[in-house]
Prior knowledge:
alpha+beta, Beta-lactamase, five-stranded antiparallel beta sheet, two-stranded antiparallel ribbon, 9 helices, 49% helix
Amino acid sequence: xxxxxxxxxxxxxxxxxxxxxxxxxxxxxxxxxxxxxxxxxxxxxxxxxxxxxxxxxxxxxxxxxxxxxxxxxxxxxxxxxxxxxxxxxxxxxxxxxxxxxxxxxxxxxxxxxxxxxxxxxxxxxxxxxxxxxxxxxxxxxxxxxxxxxxxxxxxxxxxxxxxxxxxxxxxxxxxxxxxxxxxxxxxxxxxxxxxxxxxxxxxxxxxxxxxxxxxxxxxxxxxxxxxxxxxxxxxxxxxxxxxxxxxxxxxxxxxxxxxxxxxxxxxxxxxxxxxxxxxxxxxxxxxxxxxxxxxxxxxxxxxxxxxx
Length: 308
């Protein structure tokens, strides 16, 4: 009886041990397969990034002007940069830090977003936007003016907001947020001072840094969501969005002055969202080549980053 029991127990143990080793062997095979697949995916991603880098350099080489490009994959942290810390006239990209500073000032109690501003003829400025055509006496809240400053790129709205917030405060916020080379020295549409060499400057890296802070809600959820919501309404879409699918959401801001053409934004193609900043200088009176260059850079970034 005892012999039979021992024999049965031995057989049971043999079966259990065999099962355990079989299961461990299976796990090992699966692990090797997973590692192989993971290595393959990483290799494919690396190849895509290398291909994107090559594509960027080709586009930059073809461009007949000066350019700064900064691209960041917000999932992996991978970056491509060309002249990322080179100073460029900010043009209307200065409106992004002005927007951020305005919302931070409101959060600190320095201004009220629901404050009503009455438009005066002396406020009106040339360039983009429709406030210059509105009759004196028209009224707008500060929050509305901030929106017009971004999605209409309205110069009149920008300078009203700048005067309320203060250039010194805006510059202090830029430094506080780590924008090392971004400085406002004049009103956005003050072309007389511009002709005297007084300029607002920024870099592709600074703008990308600010966009990433907005994206990652580092300014606070409320402020970041306000900024993104406004930038998604941008109506000038002849650069970054030009060759991207209409279904793709883009929060961006353009900049355009004589000899200067920019676009900077966040392309939402979850889970592979990315930041793209392209700053350009061109040596003729036409910006079409610069706009096309920016559009091509954005297209290549999307093709290589959106679907990994």
